Amino acid sequence: MAVPAIRITNLTKDFRLGLRGIRLRAVDNLSFEVADNHVFGLLGPNGSGKSTTMKVILGLLEPTLGQCEIFGLRSNSVEARRLVGYLPESPYFYRFLTGRELVDYYASICSVPRAERPKRVADVIDLVGLTAAADRRVGTYSKGMLQRIGLAQAIVHDPRLVILDEPTAGVDPIGSEAISELIIELKRRGKTVLLCSHLLAQVEGVCDDLAILNQGHLVASGSVTDLLRRQGQSNLVVENFPIAAREEIEAVLARHGAKLRHIDEARVALDRLFLEKIGPTAGKPKDPS
Amino acid sequence: MIASFRQVWQIARLTFLEAVRQRFFNFLILLALALIASAGYFRQLDFRDQSQELRFIADFGLGGIVFFGSILSVVATAQLFFSEIENRTALTMLAKPVRRWSFIAGKLLGVALLMLVFVGVLTTLLGFLLWHREQQLIAIYHDAFIKGNWLNEYPDAQRVRFVGLAVDALLQWLKFDVLAAITMLVASFSNTNLYTVVVSFFIFLICQLQYIAYDSWQKISFPALRGLVWLLSKFFPNFQLFAVGEFLVFPAKVAVPHSAILAAVGYGALYVVVFATLAVSSFRSREI
């Protein structure tokens, strides 16, 4: 059986608050697995324990109880972190470096061999679509560009697992769509992606599996298809539907023991409409001149 | 292990670059340069004779280096540490295969490089000022100097020993590194920049006055109290051991033996290692 990318077993994390050390339980007996080469969504309202879980996976917090493994290695080991790339929420980077210098710096920190570095840096910058702005200072980048350079630094050492914390926070729909495409591209390249996002449409669009947390507890987990399926119900998509046909259809369905629940007008999602209207220039960087 | 040292160097390099871009550093170094340069304009003051001038310029300059260097080493260390925590660049960094000791060591090495540049620039300026005025004084007292009896004629006059000035710069740099390590230890467990700066300056004062604790220890007869004061006097480094600039630059009357200088270097290096190790140990359990 293949080793999962992430295995969390009975994870509990308590924080001590104030001088009296009042205990706050952020995560309570959490267990789930993320399969290799899957895109996994971690959902939950604010304060549900998502960030704490993510920090335990990254080895930045020690669990109070339970354990967390990355490809079979303890998550707080340096060896495990070699396999992980991380994009924090609202990333902030050294403003005085150019995009290329920044990615090169993180590549050197991750021990990417010096000879390979220029090509690797250029490749990931190209992948995130920032080649034209690579030699500009990070301080001049827009929020969407910061997210993309953040993604570049997260994958420059070719990790097997990429953790993205709110990668589309504050990003316009065009940038958001570009990041969704990047996530799909990462999966195509064999990576596992853990995505933490409040943008539920995006999670639905790119994730294979998801887990929902609330108040530190796991309240649902499984494949997106299974979780969103309404048992025993199907949709029919019909072009030029004549209202007069409704009674006939209901009669046919009744003969087969089925029932027509309701008829809706098909709608396009708002973000899809926005992207269609913006057209082919969407997401293209402005000419620096 | 080699990878860890390479990471330390990369973190140090970036810390240094970040520090020299800060307005605070540039302002402080300009202020210190102006102060030291102004020492040459105090000739109007009533010196007993002109031979005292060089001593005054040296005292003024060395004092300026100690004063501004102490401020810079505390504020820069706290600022560079908390900028990583508050901007969450530490989160990005520590999520990579970077050990926490590498992070702390890199930050400290970056501050040490900053202090090296600071001490180097100011000492070079002070050295130039001393040399320039010394040449002028030699020209003024030319006859006595040529005859070789100028020390008889002007018993307080002394020539500047520039090697001594360089040795003093090394000792001051080491003292600033000890102070930076102390600040890093405080920062490793504190939550705010301000708290770190205030506590570190308080410890700096204790270290400056540590000899008082040592004197008290010798007079205390009660064993438990004597033990406690002894322990405290060992925990806080004695910064007076580094205050030998005057004797190094003008060694004619009291020469500082080489063994004492080497002992001070070893003493400083030991305290840097001890406080850096304590900082790493404290930072290891810190939740980022």
Main-sheet strand order of chain A equals: 6-7-8-3-9-10
Cα end-to-end separation of chain A: 55 Å
What fraction of the residues of chain B are assigned to beta strands by DSSP?
under 5%
Number of domains of chain B: 1
Largest sheet geometry of chain B:
none
> Which spans of chain B have pLDDT < 50 for at least 5 consecutive residues?
none
The SSE order of chain A reads: EEEHEEHEHHHEHEHEEHHH
Helical content of chain A (DSSP H or I, runs of 4+): 25-40%
Determine the strand fraction of chain A and express it as a percent band: 15-25%
Radius of gyration of chain A: 23 Å
What would you note in describing this structure?
The complex is a heterodimer of chains A (289) and B (288). Chain A has 289 residues and is α/β, with parallel strands linked by helices. Chain A has one domain: P-loop containing nucleotide triphosphate hydrolases (Rossmann fold), CATH 3.40.50.300. Helix content of chain A is 33%, strand content 22%. In chain A, the strands form 2 sheets. Chain A has a 6-stranded mixed β-sheet with strand order 6-7-8-3-9-10, with helices on both faces. In chain A, strands 2-1-4-5 form a 4-stranded antiparallel β-sheet. In chain A, strand 1 and strand 2 form a beta hairpin. In chain A, helix 3 runs parallel beside helix 5 (143-155) and helix 4 (117-127) crosses helix 5. The longest helix of chain A has 16 residues, at 173-188. The radius of gyration of chain A is 23 Å and the shape is globular. Chain B has 288 residues and is mainly alpha-helical. Chain B has one domain (2-284). Chain B has 13 helices and no strands. The two termini of chain B are 24 Å apart. The interface between A and B is medium-sized, with 28 and 23 residues.
